[in-house]
Model the fold of this input.
Amino acid sequence: MRVLITGGLGFIGQNLAIHLRETLPGVHLTAVDWACAPAAAERAIYNEVLQTCFADPSALERCADADVIIHLAARTTVQESICDPISTFRENVLKSQQLIEHVRYHCLKATFVFASTGGAIVGQHDGPIHERINPRPISPYGASKMAVEGLLSAYHGSFGMRAISLRFSNVYGPNSGRKGSVVSAFCKQIARSNTVKVNGDGQQTRDYIYVDDVSDAIRRVITRPDANGVYQLGTGTSTSILELAGIFQRLLPHLPPEIVHGPALDGEVRHNSCDISRIRRELDFEPKWSLEAGIQQTWDWFVGNDAIRAIA
Done:
């Protein structure tokens, strides 16, 4: 199997490549990523690394031989999308359509897997989110992900492209030194000042899923010919930001980090929990990692790598 991963040198891409290398004997892995000066260990996971934008002609040419294209590359922050919605649309939608259109003409039989998002697409919603909810994004980031899901649905219906959108909840884990989401941010803040910054009252909730569980779900999708459409991916358990901070305090009992509060963020979904019934039922997916165990693994990675020394 030949697998091309856009954003392959990023947090999820690195962990996914390690997982596929361990679970799919003989897999050929190509990363497309415009990361500057990746470490040798990051490159070594792959058979081939292209340091360029996924919409660059040199990257598009590599798709022709791919059996699977996993599209992880994107601008991923809500706040950045609010500050610069035009750039978010250009990077997340227009360039993704270039990739999708190239697949249509040159490798239509390939499986296309898109890293989408549940909470940002659905918007404010009472109760667990699932694939059947009418989307009402409240940020340009969420709208950009919804647009790409729509394109893939249209290309499946019009041209027969096999396309799967996995709506990730909040993913965390090792190899996240360049990631800015909350678990990674808490690790960095503790290293700098032994504090964790909670925006607003801290009662906002998220469904946190460990990156190895995400990798397992992607492997199931690309090895199951019956996988199709949109799948919500998470654990089915929601945790408040304050509860998350409390986990870090329990993991570091000798010097528990202090919780400090900052202003609430614009465009932030208040509550996010997932109904993962479809992916459980159809792909036999079951998350294996508890939040406490996953955070311990993530913290241990930060402590044991240059990521924590570089910011402390």
